[in-house]
Amino acid sequence: MQNSLIEALEARLNEFDPATRAAALNELAILADAGEIQCSAPADVANMHCQTFFSYNAYGYSPSGLAWLGRRNGTRLMGIVDFDVFDGVDEFLTACDLVGVRGSAGVETRAYVPEFATREINSPGEPGITYHMGIGFTSSAIPAEVAGIAASLRKRARERNLGVMARVNAYLDPVVIDYETDVLPLTPAGTATERHMVLAYVRAAQRTSHDPVGFWAEKLGMSRDDVQRMIGKTGEAPAFQNLVRSKLMKQGGVGYVLPSPESFPSIAEFHRLIEACDALPCITWLDGTSPGEQAMEELAELLIGEGCVTMNIIPDRNWNIVDPAVKQLKLQKLIEVVQLAQALDLPINVGTEMNSFGNKRIDDFNAPELATVRKQFMDGAYFIYGHTVMQRTLGLGYQSPWARTHLPGRRERNAFYTQMGTLVRPGPFGLDRLAQLSVEMTPVDMLGQLA
Known about the structure:
With about 450 residues, this protein is of the alpha/beta class.
């Protein structure tokens, strides 16, 4: 098989047209099944937290592109977690079925925790605000009774972006951008992020300024030589984009305004949306060093009381660190939070995000630093796939009345869905076999029949 054809098909996976993506993935799957594309053998590794281009993926991956990445690289389990949107859920789960990857889908936003109003949690410099997730969604369709909450996530995101843009436009004038004409075309479904706006600004500077390097040197308070080194030949170097965002849009920048509690949904409001979709509220953990995360047991028990049943961790930023002292501290915090999650019966969702240049496409599960927590990471991946496939196929996911009746304790329920995740193969064969089970069966009967 010619590499040029494969590369062309893989490029089409990330085009904005959904029909183009679907056709390319179907052709790639056929070629892979026929042995004409060499894919790595499936390995017991997982990336359950990847943003898609429906929110922001630094490498431009669509849901189909991420599913194929899993197949090509032999990643046994993959999960998407987009910011504020559900656009990729159906596409990703269908793509995973096609290519034989165990898949899951989630959504992330920021939410307000009034009990921690004076303590920074995991959103730097923003007391009371927490990044928060729902995982285990099975459809992009949102039930009517909570459609307003889903719509408000998009609306709030747009309003925040427009506020940032107005302030940055005033500072960078005459290099200004328009949200409709410069930013939204960079997205496939009309939901932009700060990173899309940064790209729009660097392109506007290249397009309208007679001296982009000098312009950025003045506006960013840097030497011309430093800007020249970072900006790259096209003016769009990833490190430079990160710098522009940090200088202009994050805390201390002209575009930043400290959010109010009304800027984001409450935990209770967000959980109503998640649970109405039969998905699972999920605590997110950063690195254990903030005042809020130093009280992680208090925070976790509070959020469990609000309905949280899982925890998300991004491992790489907690051990893959150059400074030995910082590495020792954060690795110890990582081990401690995994132990806490076990004690509180919270399965762990892990991944790399891929929303920033330099994020890995897969964690290094063989790193010695992760040896004591690797099993918990993999169990969590199988757990969320087990819930997802049971909910999609039989309507018997973790939140179902069936589960609450037969598996009233969280620990036994976690164990059941983890086992289901290991037993049910991805794709039509596994789904068909699962569909033959009866809703009248007990968990033990189901596991026995599949085993």
